[in-house]
Amino acid sequence: MPSKPPLLSVVIPVYNEEKTIPELVKRLHVLIRILKEKNGFSKEDIEILFVNDGSRDSTFDVLKKYCESEPGFFLLNLSRNYGHQLAITAGIDTARGGAVAVMDGDLQDPPEFVADLYSKMDEGFDVVYARRRKREGESLFKLITAHVFYRILKKLTRFEIPIDTGDFRIMSRRVTDVLVSMREEHRYIRGLIAWIGFKQTGLEYDRDERFHGETKFSVSKMLGFALDGITSFSSAPLKFSSYLGFTSAFFGALYTIYILYLKLFTHDTIQGWTSVMIVALVLGGVQLIALGMIGEYLSRVNDQSKNRPLYVIEKIYSVKRNSKK
Ligand code: UDP
Ligand code: MG
């Protein structure tokens, strides 16, 4: 490991991407060439940090071979699968670059575009995120749910979380340092970065199709991720349940007055069980919703209070073994 930190680190989380890696490495070499030609980079100015997130296929072996033979390429091997956001976190924590870029390893994020993101920073931006112009090869379901989710999140938060962006972005050292200091467990990294502030901007790109294989995100994983996003940055759902509670209590009180009136001043007092059932059902429903919301937050508080490390690194592989950390 050279003592001088590189100008740029590129963090790439990978999980079961064995078929994609040779092409990925080829494209990364194109990126390095562009940076050399356009930005006057030397070989030491860039480090590539693959984070192997507990892959079950031969991803580890393939990457280890590359990283042990190519200076500037590092493989951070996690002890098991921790998920996309924590894999990114591990990479960002370890990255030493003056700027840190994050991109997916499935070639949906074109590696060459990192050079454009890097150049854009020169205009005085601390964060340049890549904004998807179009999405190739994504299901209609994913397109619609993503569209709706980003707009809900925007309504719920007080600061700007850019719409239609993933984690494909570049950030300055000072933003990276703040991000590294944020140790929350349920991480919605693009939200955390938006929270940090400074000058941020977007640059449009065309999101490619996956080079090989399928998305690693099931519908339930996506839902969990969406909930992390919302609960990390807004207590609106908590408030929503109390509004709902207040509203139903208000109407309940009105209804009680009405029933009392019937009872005291009229003769048709015996109301069937219908009204009782309605009240019981509505209240029961409201209580369940409120409890569920509280549960969502509580489980996150519970997780956070354990204060565990976010991930465990098995080892870092590079040309000179054990030279990192
Ligand atoms: N990934 C990971 N850990 C996981 C799931 C995915 O490191 O548990 C990696 C994956 O290899 C890819 C990136 O994160 O490089 C994005 O994953 P994917 O393409 O499945 O997500 P999508 O593009 O569908 O949102
Ligand atoms: Mg993908």
Automatic annotation (TrEMBL):
Cellular localisation: Cell membrane
UniProt keyword terms in alphabetical order: Cell membrane, Glycosyltransferase, Membrane, Transferase, Transmembrane, Transmembrane helix
Entry annotated with the keyword Cytoplasm: no
CDD domains, A to Z: DPM1_like_bac
Gene Ontology CC: one annotated term: plasma membrane
InterPro entries: Glyco_trans_2-like, Glycosyltransferase_2, Nucleotide-diphossugar_trans
Membrane topology, as annotated: Multi-pass membrane protein
Pfam families in the cross-refs: Glycos_transf_2
Membrane-spanning parts: 243-261, 273-298
Family recorded in the similarity comment: Belongs to the glycosyltransferase 2 family. GtrB subfamily.
Protein name, entry field: Glycosyltransferase
Organism listed in the record: Leptospira semungkisensis
Taxonomic placement: Bacteria, Pseudomonadati, Spirochaetota, Spirochaetia, Leptospirales
